[in-house]
C-alpha cells in the first residue's frame, strides 16, 4: 500500500469513527469531492496506523450522517476502497480494514513517474472479470484459435491518484487454465509473470501503438471520468519465443501530470 503524507497526531483515535472524522475534516480545505475526501481520509488513517487491520468501520448510514454526506456518496467511497483492497465488506456483518496490499512488482506497462520524486508510482491491480470471447481485433494480432480467446479485465489504481483499465486477450488453446485460477492470484501481479511461470510462455517482446479516444460509458465509469473525457488507448502485442504472439492488450490511460514510461521491454 502506498505511503501517504503523515497526518498522525500524538494521541491515536479512540475509535475508527473518530479517526475517520478527524482526517475527513482536515482534508476539507483541499476542495476534494465528498467521495474523494472520505476515500482519502480512510487511506490516510490506515497509513498512519489509526485504522488497523480488521478494525470495523461504522455502518454506512451512521458514517454518512456523522460526516454530513449522503448514503450514496458513502457507499461509493467504501466500494472504491473495497475494490482497491483497503477494505473488506462482509454482507450482513459490516465493513472492515483489509490486509495491506503489495503493489504490482516489475510492472511493464504501468510505470508512471511521480513528478515530485522522480520515482515510479506503486500500482494495484483489481480483477474485474474473465471470460472466453470470439473473434475481434485481437484475433488478427494473435492468429486464429478454434477455442477462442481468454479475456481478462482489470482496473489498475496508480497510487490511488487515478485509474487505468486493461483488457487482456490470450489464445484459449494455450491459456484456458487461467480461467480456473483463484481470482486473488490475478490481483496485484504482473500477468506476464503468470504466463511465464504457470504456462511456460515468457513475454520476450512487446510492441504497441497509441491514440487518443473517447472511452465508452463502461470504461469511463471504471476510470471515474466524465462522458466528455479523452483517454490514451494503447494496444500492445506480446510475443514469446520464435516471434509467436501470445497476448494482445488494450490499455486505457487517463490524463495526469505523471509521465508514462513507454519502454515495454524493461521492468522497473
* CATH architectural group of the largest domain: 3-Layer(aba) Sandwich
On the 0 to 100 scale, the average pLDDT is: 88
Question: What strand line-up does the widest sheet have?
Answer: 4-5-6-9-8-7
What's the count of strands?
A: 10
- Could you give a short account of the major beta sheet? 6 strands, antiparallel
CATH class of the largest domain: Alpha Beta
Protein structure class: alpha+beta
Rg (CA only): 20 Å
Q: Could you name the CATH homologous superfamily of the largest domain?
A: Chorismate lyase-like
Q: How would you describe the shape?
A: elongated
The total of helices stands at 8
GO biological process, one term: negative regulation of DNA-templated transcription
GO molecular function: DNA binding; DNA-binding transcription factor activity
Pfam family, one: UTRA
Keywords: DNA-binding, Transcription, Transcription regulation
Task: Outline the secondary-structure elements.
Layout: H1 16-26, H2 34-47, H3 60-67, H4 71-83, E1 87-90, E2 94-97, E3 112-113, E4 123-133, H5 137-142, E5 149-158, E6 162-171, H6 172-175, H7 191-199, E7 205-213, H8 217-222, E8 231-239, E9 245-253, E10 259-260
Antiparallel strand pairs: 1-2, 3-10, 4-5, 5-6, 6-9, 7-8, 8-9
Helix pairs in contact: 1-2, 2-4, 3-4
Keywords: DNA-binding, Transcription, Transcription regulation
GO molecular function, one term: DNA binding
Pfam families: GntR, UTRA
Q: Explain this structure to me?
A:
GO terms for molecular function: DNA binding; DNA-binding transcription factor activity. Residues 32-100 form the HTH gntR-type domain. One of its GO terms (biological process) is negative regulation of DNA-templated transcription. Pfam families: GntR, UTRA. Keywords: DNA-binding, Transcription, Transcription regulation. By secondary structure, the chain is α+β, with helices and mostly antiparallel strands. The protein has two domains: 16-97, Orthogonal Bundle (Arc Repressor Mutant, subunit A), CATH 1.10.10.10; 112-260, Chorismate lyase-like (Chorismate lyase). Helices cover 26% and strands 26% of the residues. The chain has eight helices and ten strands. It has a six-stranded antiparallel beta sheet. A hairpin with a 3-residue loop joins strand 1 (87-90) and strand 2 (94-97). The longest helix has 14 residues, at 34-47. It is elongated. The two termini are 17 Å apart. The model is unreliable at 1-13 (pLDDT under 50).
Amino acid at each position: 500500500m502506498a505511503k501517504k503524507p503523515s497526518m498522525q497526531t500524538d494521541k491515536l483515535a479512540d475509535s475508527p469513527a473518530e479517526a475517520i472524522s478527524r482526517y475527513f475534516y482536515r482534508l476539507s480545505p483541499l476542495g476534494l469531492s465528498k467521495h474523494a475526501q472520505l476515500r482519502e481520509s480512510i487511506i490516510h488513517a490506515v497509513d498512519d496506523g489509526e485504522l488497523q487491520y480488521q478494525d470495523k468501520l461504522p455502518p454506512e448510514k451512521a458514517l454518512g450522517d456523522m460526516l454530513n454526506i449522503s448514503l450514496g456518496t458513502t457507499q461509493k467511497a467504501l466500494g472504491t476502497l473495497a475494490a482497491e483492497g483497503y477494505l473488506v465488506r462482509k454482507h450482513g456483518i459490516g465493513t472492515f480494514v483489509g490486509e495491506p496490499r503489495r503493489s504490482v512488482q516489475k510492472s511493464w506497462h504501468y510505470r508512471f513517474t511521480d513528478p515530485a520524486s522522480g520515482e515510479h508510482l506503486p500500482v494495484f491491480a483489481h480483477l474485474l472479470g474473465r471470460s472466453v470471447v470470439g473473434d475481434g481485433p485481437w484475433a488478427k494480432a494473435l492468429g486464429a484459435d478454434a477455442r477462442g480467446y481468454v479475456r481478462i479485465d482489470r482496473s489498475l489504481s496508480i497510487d490511488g491518484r487515478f485509474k487505468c483499465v486493461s483488457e487482456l486477450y490470450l489464445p484459449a488453446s494455450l491459456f484456458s487454465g487461467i480461467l480456473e485460477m483463484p481470482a486473488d492470484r490475478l490481483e496485484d501481479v504482473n500477468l506476464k509473470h503468470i504466463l511465464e511461470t504457470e504456462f511456460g510462455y515468457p513475454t520476450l517482446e512487446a510492441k504497441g501503438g497509441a491514440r487518443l479516444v473517447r472511452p465508452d460509458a463502461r470504461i469511463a465509469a471504471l476510470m471515474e471520468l466524465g462522458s466528455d473525457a479523452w483517454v490514451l488507448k494503447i494496444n500492445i502485442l506480446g510475443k514469446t519465443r520464435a516471434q509467436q504472439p501470445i497476448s494482445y492488450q488494450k490499455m486505457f490511460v487517463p490524463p495526469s501530470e505523471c509521465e508514462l514510461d513507454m519502454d515495454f521491454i524493461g521492468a522497473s
